[in-house]
Amino acid sequence: MTTLTKTDLLQYDLTLGLSVMEGRGFYYPADTVIGDNGRLYVVNRSLESVDRGVRVTVCDIESEYYGTFGSYGEGDGQFIWLTSGAKNSQGHIYLTDEYLHRVTTFDADGNFIRVWGTHGSGAGELDGPCGIAIDSDDNIYVSDTYNNRVQKFTSGGVLLAVIGEGALSMPWGVTVAPGGDVYVADWGNDRIARFTADGEFAAAYGEPGRGEGQLVKPASVAVDADGNVYVADWGNERVQAFDDDGAFVQLLRGEATLSPWAVNFLSINREEGEARTRADLERDIEFFDADDPHEVSSHIEKFFWSPMSVKLDGKGRLFVTESNRHRIQVYRVAS
User: Fold this and answer.
1) Do residues 242 and 206 touch, judged by C-beta distance below 8 A?
2) Contact 214/207 with Cβ under 8 angstroms?
């Protein structure tokens, strides 16, 4: 284990994204898949009952834009409520749809491959899948949210195991750590649950609350090679880091700057750019309830507002997808 102080694990790097319902940008993104060749697949959920905006945006850390794929609907390669994504060893992208209760697979270029999933509460059936992860053997772990469990499948959707029955409450994000353990954002229990590769409960991280090391409705979890655990503390509008023993390490509220896409937009739309230049983005605000993280985050642009996903790439960077500001904040992890 690498020992770190409570302030030096994560350092802000940059921001990606722009609020756009179609084309180059994001619209209420729910997750980001770290693909091959440095490509990022941003999973845009959009708003309920709004068909525009539902898509996967492909870009990279340099804000290069490669296009989109997927659309709103119930056909092959379409979605209603996109929730999460993951990549297998072949570079295929797996996406979950909470409304259609299914998993859809695309190749790295966005071409549809297959779809599987049956709505229900029986073995192998799904009810509102909100998270997905893939291990080194290309087995798939799906957070079967409203059935309060995680199910393990083959790449083709054949059930292999059920994890966390009786221990989880509305699980959301899920990840497989480098050592093989399965970590689950146990949304309803305000904690991170850790299971062995065999599905045995191993540990829990966090407890309900708003203090350091406490969680409210965590949405996503990521684990690095040193065992450090990163949590999208969705209900507290922040990201927290723990060490491999579950001890609190660091808390982030967000440090976003303008993305290259936003800079370009403001340079073209000069009136908006000039208005922003005149605005005081660091002013003291008299909040109705300064202890309400949702109220504070909704007024402070640089802060996280609905952080729904944390993902690590292979270069020591943590990608925080925040839905309500249609962007990704990127942090560097200390080596």
Assistant:
1) yes
2) yes
Query: pLDDT at position 331, please?
Result: 98
| Contact in structure between 22 and 41 (CB atoms under 8 Å) | no
Report d(CA 17, CA 46) in Å as an integer.
Answer: 14
Q: What's the DSSP call for residue 259?
A: -
- Judged by DSSP in three states, 278 sits in helix
Residues 120 and 216: their CA atoms lie apart, in Å, by: 28
DSSP code of residue 80: S
Helix, strand or coil, per DSSP, at residue 148? coil
CB half-sphere exposure, 11, CA atoms < 13 A: 7
The CA distance from 246 to 276, in Å, is 41
Number of neighbours of residue 269 by Cβ within 10 angstroms? 12
130's tokens: 């909100």
Q: What's residue 7's pLDDT?
A: 59
Of 70, 69, 217, nearest to 145 by C-alpha is 217
Q: What pLDDT score does 2 carry? A: 41
Predicted local confidence at residue 4, as pLDDT:
44
The half-sphere exposure of 24 on its side-chain side, counting CA atoms within 13 A, is 13
Burial of 109 (0-12, 13-18, 19+ CB in 10 A): exposed
> What are the contacts of 295-302 at 24+ separation with CB within 8 A?
296/237, 297/237, 297/253, 297/254, 298/324, 301/256, 301/325, 302/254, 302/255, 302/256, 302/257
Compute the chain's Rg from CA coordinates.
19
Residues in the chain: 335
Residues of the chain with pLDDT under 70: 1-7, 283
Distance CA 127, CA 143 (A): 9
DSSP assignment of 119-159: BSSSTT-BSSEEEEEE-TT--EEEEEGGGTEEEEE-TTS-E
Between helix 260-268 and helix 270-278 the angle, nearest 10°, is: 110
Write down the pLDDT at residue 279: 80
pLDDT tens-digit profile of 34-48? 999 899 999 999 998
